[in-house]
Specification:
Subcellular location: Cytoplasm; Nucleus
Structural class: alpha+beta
Family: Belongs to the pICln (TC 1.A.47) family.
GO biological process, one term: mRNA cis splicing, via spliceosome
Strand order of the largest sheet: 4-3-2-1-7-6-5
Helix content: 25-40%
Radius of gyration: 28 Å
Keywords: Cytoplasm, Nucleus
Number of domains: 2
Number of helices: 7
CATH architecture of the largest domain: Roll
Pfam family, one: Voldacs
Strand content: 15-25%
Number of strands: 7
Largest sheet: 7 strands, antiparallel
CATH topology of the largest domain: PH-domain like
Length: 244
């Protein structure tokens, strides 16, 4: 028996309980400063190679990738950007029939995978079949021209949510090179320029603070540090270097 989209979503640690309004609009998490960046109808949500949840509306927010099924009461899925370990545009028909956005996912904890399998009614045979399915999602717009537009927005939002810590490895911070590599050239250049500008401002502020600290240290006696230098020179003159 083929696994259902809902069963795979649980296995992949994809959120399946998404808060919606009566009009099936996504409720944003204002406490997390979440904002809607893009909304696109008629996007198919495919898990693994070919397990489809059907068509729905894709919402790209500054915190999540949220897909809402078109049918009333239908499935809804949400992913946090740190769950996405790789994202790319796929146009190779040998990989997938239509151009799409490919997401490779962190498969989540073992407890979550076991819980997802236990909730599914398919039984042990289906669980064994699930084990062979890679943790992948494909976002397939009906309008192929939307692929590049949506991918750019996804990259921009993902850059706002870097995965900063490796579980079990303490306070280890990732290099941002992978995130930067996913940005288009214009966005990447803008990010670098903004950081350089911020760095120069910080440097100027630090210089002013350093100068103020030096003035406070010296006080009203600019020559307070000169005696040590002069004493050192006199000692060298009288004793000379040793070891002739």
């Amino acid at each position: 028996m083929a696994p259902s989209a809902l069963a795979l979503a649980r296995k992949f640690d994809i959120e399946t309980q998404v808060e919606l309004t009566e009009d099936r609009e996504v409720v944003l998490d204002t406490d997390d400063e979440e904002q809607l960046s893009s909304k696109c109808p008629d996007v198919e949500f495919v898990l693994g190679d070919d397990v489809t949840a059907g068509a729905g509306t894709l919402h790209l927010t500054t915190r999540r990738v949220v897909w809402v099924g078109s049918q009333p009461g239908g499935p809804c899925f949400a992913l946090r950007y740190p769950q996405v370990v790789m994202h790319a545009i796929s146009r190779d028909p040998s990989s997938f029939a239509k151009p799409c956005i490919y997401l490779q996912l962190d498969e989540g904890s073992e407890d979550m995978r076991m819980a997802g399998a236990a909730e599914e009614e398919g039984g042990e045979g289906e669980e064994e079949e699930d084990d062979d399915i890679a943790a992948e999602v494909r976002l397939v717009p009906t309008e192929e021209g939307k692929v590049d537009e949506l991918f750019k927005v996804l990259c921009d939002c993902a850059a706002l949510n870097p995965d900063s810590e490796v579980e079990g490895e303490g306070d280890f911070f990732f290099d941002e090179a992978e995130v930067m590599a996913g940005l288009d050239p214009d966005t990447r250049a803008a990010v670098i320029a903004e950081r350089l500008e911020g760095g120069m401002e910080l440097e100027g502020e630090a210089a002013e603070n350093g100068e103020a600290d030096l003035r406070e240290l010296v006080g009203d006696d600019p020559s307070r540090f000169e005696d040590d230098d002069e004493d050192g020179e006199e000692d060298m003159g009288q004793n000379g270097p040793s070891g002739r």
